[in-house]
Structure formats: C-alpha cells, structure tokens
Amino acid sequence: MENAKKHIMLVGKSQAGKTTLTQYLTNQQLFYHKTQTVQVVDGHYVDTPGEYLEQRGFYGALSVTASQVDVIALVQSAVEESTMFAPGFGSMFCGKFVIGIVTKIDLATEEQLKRATRYLTDAGAQTCYSVSSVTGQGMTEFNKWFENL
Hints:
Layout: E1 8-12, H1 18-25, E2 39-41, E3 45-47, H2 51-54, H3 59-66, E4 71-77, E5 97-103, H4 110-123, E6 128-130, H5 139-147
Parallel strand pairs: 1-3, 1-4, 4-5, 5-6
Antiparallel strand pairs: 2-3
GO molecular function: ATP binding
Protein name: EutP/PduV family microcompartment system protein
Family: Belongs to the EutP/PduV family.
C-alpha cells in the first residue's frame, strides 16, 4: 500500500513566504509571484492568497479550503513586526491540526524569531517550525515531521 502523503494548507499574510516555501519544498526554482487564487502544489501543499487572511470576508474561503486538508500551517515572516493572526485564530478550523511556520529566519534577529513564534502559538499553533526557503535552514526538521504525518 502506498504511503499517502498528507495535505497541508498554508495561511499567512501577503509576502509571508508561503509561495516561496512551497517552491522550496517541491524543488522548484525560487521566484516571487503573487498568488491570486488557491493553488495546490505537488498535490499536497495548498497555497492560499494573503488576502484570504487580510480580509475577513474571505475567511469562509479559508474554512471551505481547510475542509479538504489534514493540517493548517499558519505562516509568519520572522521580520514582520506585526501579525494578522488573532489570538486563537486556529480554532476556526474545527479540530484540524494547526502548526506554525516562521519564515525568513535567515534575515531575522533572535528577538524577531521569538516574537514570530509567540504570534503563532498565541494564534493556536500546536507546534512551530522555523525555516528559510533561501538557505534551507530548518527544512530538514520540517520535512521529517511532514513525512511522518
């Protein structure tokens, strides 16, 4: 029987690093492009537009999309001073496993990393991973977790 790899939905502000993360994880060339609609990448990663988080009117689209995945990943850039995730945000996904992914760690100070992780845990992330899609830092740990889901 084939090992059925899980599906993970990436939710975060515009320019948080969701698309770049999916490019890294699927061995694509890294290049910036604005995600306009929900995109399924490599059959397992669901990349959502930042506007789905930034505009409450799109929360319904997040909920509908979440029903089709196994894990919700809240994505927060380490160098972003603020967050769009309200405390308890992850609870809107009705019992789905919620993780946090801090991106752009190669550009951040230790204090910025701590702040981003706190934002994600406050939002309901049950565990957090810190990664850089440019240097690959933290990707081995994240991939190991994802492969063992």
